[in-house]
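In this section we walk through a basic example: taking a raw amino acid sequence and producing a predicted 3D structure, encoded as discrete structure tokens. The instruction is simple. Fold the sequence below.
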Amino acid sequence: MSLNDFGFNVHRLRELRGLSGYELSLRIGKTTSYIYKVENNLISVGTKVVYDLADALEVDVRELFKPVDGK
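The resulting token sequence is shown next.
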């Protein structure tokens, strides 16, 4: 897994669920700018945020770390 896969997976799963960055940010108590930075791998996130994102996206945490082939 590349570190870029995490941000890509957050973005992909958010779109699959029909959520805007704003809606996801409200679900985890962060700003829309924060979501943008996560999805574009501009910041690292802590364990709590990883679990918050998984809960908000209704996936198992492992789903956020799956390797992405052929982006």
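Looking at the output, two observations stand out. The chain has a mean pLDDT of 94. The chain has five helices and no strands. In the next section we compare this with other chains.
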